[in-house]
Amino acid sequence: MPRHKKHRAKQTIKSNYIRSSFFGVEDSLVSTTGLVAGISVATHEVEFILLAGFVAVAVEAISMSAGEFLSEETEQDLNRTKRHSNPIIGGAIMFVSYFAAGMIPILPILFFPIDYAVYVSMAAALVGLFLLGLMKGALTKRNILKS
Fold first, then answer.
1. What pTM was computed for the model?
2. Of the candidates 132, 34, 113, the residue with the CA atom closest to the CA atom of residue 147
3. In the chain, % of residues over pLDDT 70
4. Which residues contact 77 (CB under 8 A, 6 or more apart)?
5. Other C-beta atoms lying within 10 Å of the C-beta of residue 63
6. Residue 125 to residue 32: CA distance in whole angstroms
7. Is 56:35 a contact under the CB 8 Å cutoff?
């Protein structure tokens, strides 16, 4: 394979992994914050909110990583001539990014009184989304604030 095609293939693989991680972080921040806020409206039982949050994040991380694995594997099967990223690595990246980001809106429930914890969770998720946008801008060499 010519050198420029090898470089392009490596770049594609790297961008696939970055896409997986960004998608996992964004989806988890939004979904988990919504879950925590919704359950907190119904109950102020910290243990119940934490249990529901941890279960949801674990189940969604598994689901998202399985979906990432299957979509990457399907893409490889359809385009056998092109070199693609490893579906197992893509799935693992999705799992880790989703699970880690899901902890951001859950952790305030542990450390703050429940009346304030939901607001801290929402603020933490917004900060996380803002930082994700900044990182995207830096990686794509676009205006980081617009990104």
1. 0.87
2. 132
3. 88
4. none
5. 13
6. 9
7. yes
